Amino acid sequence: MIKFEQVSKTYPGGQRALSKVNFHVEPGEMAFLTGHSGAGKSTILKLISLMERPTVGRVLINGHDLSVIKRRQIAYIRRDIGMIFQSHQLLMDKSVFDNVALPLVIEGFTHRETSKRVHAALEMVGLRDKAKNLPIMLSGGEQQRVGIARAVVNKPPLLLADEPTGNLDPKLSMEIVRLFEDFNQAGVSVFIATHDLGLIARMKYRTLTLKNGQMITDGLNDDTSGEWS
Ligand code: ADP
Ligand code: ADP
Questions:
Q1: Signal peptide: which range, if any (predicted)?
Q2: How far apart are CA 77 and CA 224, in angstroms?
């Protein structure tokens, strides 16, 4: 589903963000990506979502080699990826329904199909009765779940999350991760970047750890010591 082969990234200006990173995430797998601030987590997510290109090496997503992708194919590849952000980036003057419907409207789905899918997505995240609300009327945890519904409404095979629990307390964070587990059990690959070591420690998932742009560990997280280095 995700494959990095000897990937290095140096930003214009000379800042080296990744050095010879190798890993892969299998279809149907759920894994965490962690590391200190500046370790390169966001850069990895940006390479996967085609917001940045590697300086050296290859990134493959769902069998597509991103190094040979044409500009006009980018939207097509991105359709396979549901993105979830820390700041959920909802449109505050639009209803919950309209926020979740956005990706389908962009793709030209019919009203009937859009409505069906939006309600199914809201049902999955437990917000079926909030469709008509404005996001401002919801709690932080609920807003994050709207962001998740929007990310899955297209039924992408891969969910990417960047600090999805950054603004939430431990209990709500756990609920969000449980939601990711539900999607994972339905067959979706899930890749979560987080520096919330407490959260990772409570889950028994594969954890990839970055340090100064290098992948230093990759394995089942059984270490609850809460140290990166
Ligand atoms: P993390 O997500 O783990 O905090 P990042 O991937 O954001 O790490 O950053 C890795 C390194 O690359 C940092 O040194 C950061 O300052 C640098 N960096 C990130 N984005 C850019 C950019 N657009 N231009 C220049 N340097 C960047
Ligand atoms: P995070 O810590 O959540 O990864 P940051 O706050 O470090 O994010 O970065 C926010 C944005 O600024 C990102 O788009 C990142 O690529 C960019 N950025 C980070 N470091 C630099 C840098 N040194 N120069 C230019 N842009 C940067």
A1: none
A2: 36
